[in-house]
């Protein structure tokens, strides 16, 4: 409904889809209407519903493909 599959669509499917991104994701977490994934490059990408800023990109715009979050990341965490 909100593009939380990340494949530039709002169509429902019961099959796996390729996320529209060149990143290699190592961890994926889904919320009620959005999804976030950590890339192998330690970047956090999110997509889907964003009415309350869930995607962390500084907007409240829905995203049907991954958007890079603007969250501060401590380089020593990794």
Instruction: Using the CA coordinates, give the radius of gyration.
Output: 12 Å
Average pLDDT for all residues: 88
Number of strands: 4
C-alpha geometry: globular
Helical amount among residues, as a percent range? under 10%
The profile of the biggest β sheet is: 4 strands, antiparallel
Query: How far is the N terminus from the C terminus?
Result: 34 Å
Binned strand content = 25-35%
Query: What is the number of helices?
Result: 0
**Element-by-element helix/strand order:** EEEE
Tag the structure with descriptive keywords:
78 residues, mainly beta, four-stranded antiparallel sheet, 4 strands, 29% strand, globular
Summarize this entry quickly.
The chain is an all-beta fold. The protein has no helices and 4 strands.
Describe this structure as you would to a colleague.
There is one protein chain. This protein is mainly β and 78 residues long. The protein is 0% helix and 29% strand. It has no helices and four strands. It has a four-stranded antiparallel beta sheet with strand order 1-2-3-4, with no helix packed on it. A hairpin with a 4-residue loop joins β2 and β3. The termini are far apart. The mean pLDDT is 88.
């Amino acid at each position: 409904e909100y593009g939380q599959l990340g494949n530039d669509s709002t169509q429902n499917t019961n099959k796996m889809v390729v996320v529209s991104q060149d990143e290699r994701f190592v961890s994926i977490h889904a919320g009620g209407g959005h999804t976030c994934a950590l890339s192998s490059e330690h970047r956090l990408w999110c997509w889907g519903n964003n009415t309350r800023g869930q995607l962390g990109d500084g907007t409240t715009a829905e995203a049907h493909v991954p958007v890079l979050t603007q969250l501060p990341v401590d380089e020593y965490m990794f």
